[in-house]
Specification:
Number of helices: 12
CATH architecture of the largest domain: Alpha-Beta Complex
Cofactor: Fe cation
CATH superfamily of the largest domain: Naphthalene 1,2-dioxygenase Alpha Subunit, Chain A, domain 1
Number of strands: 19
Distance between the termini: 17 Å
Bound molecules: FE2/S2 (inorganic) cluster, fe (ii) ion
Largest sheet: 7 strands, antiparallel
GO molecular function, one term: dioxygenase activity
Pfam families: Rieske, Ring_hydroxyl_A
Radius of gyration: 23 Å
Strand content: 25-35%
Keywords: 2Fe-2S, Dioxygenase, Iron, Iron-sulfur, Metal-binding, Oxidoreductase
Number of domains: 2
CATH class of the largest domain: Alpha Beta
Strand order of the largest sheet: 2-11-10-5-4-3-6
InterPro entries: Rieske_2Fe-2S, Rieske_2Fe-2S_sf, Ring_hydroxy_dOase_asu_C_dom, Rng_hydr_dOase-A
Amino acid sequence: MTIGAGIEEAGAKESFTLAAGLSTEPVPVDSYISPDFFELERKRVFGRAWLFVGRVDQLPEENSYFVKEIDICKASVLVTRNEAGKVQAFHNVCSHRGNLVVNDDCGTKKRFRCEYHNWTYQNDGALIGVPDQKNFFNLDKKKCGLTPIATGVWEGWIFVNMQREPEISLEEFLGPYGKAYAGVPFGEDHETLVIEARFNANWKLIMDAFAESYHVPAIHPGTLAPGFANPVHNKYARPLSGNTFGLHAAWSAYGNPEYAPPPDSEVERIACKIDTGGLLGSDVNDEVLRLRAHPAINPTKESCWSADVTSIFPNFNIDYSTGGYWTHEFWPLSRDATHWILTIRIPKASSVRHRLQLEHYAARWAEIVLEDVTNCERIQKGLESGAKDVMILQDGEFMIRHMQETLRKWVNAETVADAMK
Ligand code: FES
Ligand SMILES: [Fe+2]
């Protein structure tokens, strides 16, 4: 469901929380600190949900591969593109005595050789070479390939499911989200910037930091706030719209149309041009026009829009703006440790001015996320103290509430079918 007019001054505001059928009560905080809850997340959420592992452009040609470590599932996942072009995933584990087979991050190889005793596998997982095979007992190579992992691709995004036989398909899992965001134009000709961090806080705390803009004026006064709030029209950086899509959710961020770079920000003053939506703007081109026209993007089609934040359960965000798009992966390492990966994809610059704007945008990102990450360890400490049993969420924080309710359903459900109800 889409509800527009999130900013107070835009007129009658409807509640995102009520429209999504969510409770308005305080929300328990045990999911951030309880060891038992964490073990249930490991088993019942990450062990059963479809998990993002990469994008198809990481497998540019036949026999390309990359390895993705999924610590929460204790899995090393080898993702390959076989000679027929099919994307597949396998446990990166040798059938002989369990050594990891591939020990680099990515590349192109027709064959993978385990370094322990030289067993060799094809890119499609088949075992093709066993030194001194005659000295084994009835070894059937056909039965000893790499163990496959269920794999699905949606709009170029690769997902895996760690269940041997997934209870639901990727399509069912994505549900209305998959339909709503199908066809959003992703240019493949982007430059990629990765910012990652490991820190001591529960994985959902950093996820929560990107689920709402209520914190923007307080935590980001010198970086984000001037562009994402307006002293008269949207003082508290309220979202423009909010949606839930089954397990998944999205909100649209306001962009201050009156934003002007401060006098001491000289590069930004030369580069800044707000003509395609907020301060993350790009030059107008076909891709930008198609992005803005897509019905799921800025669904209420507000002119003061800057970006859409979309959250795919349980730990993956895809965010869209006219200045490119970015993804977040929020990987739990333990109950109170997280590996967070931000991948920013910036379109190739179409002018010198645009290039400068993008460079400034990328540099600004690093400052902003540092402000968010540093705060997470403080929240973890606060919650661990046991001083508070609940957190109190306002309407702009509906996505945190939605995540908490969805997570609790998955943690409590015996089957995925029950969790999906
Ligand atoms: S463990 Fe891989 S060849 Fe022995
Ligand atoms: Fe933030």
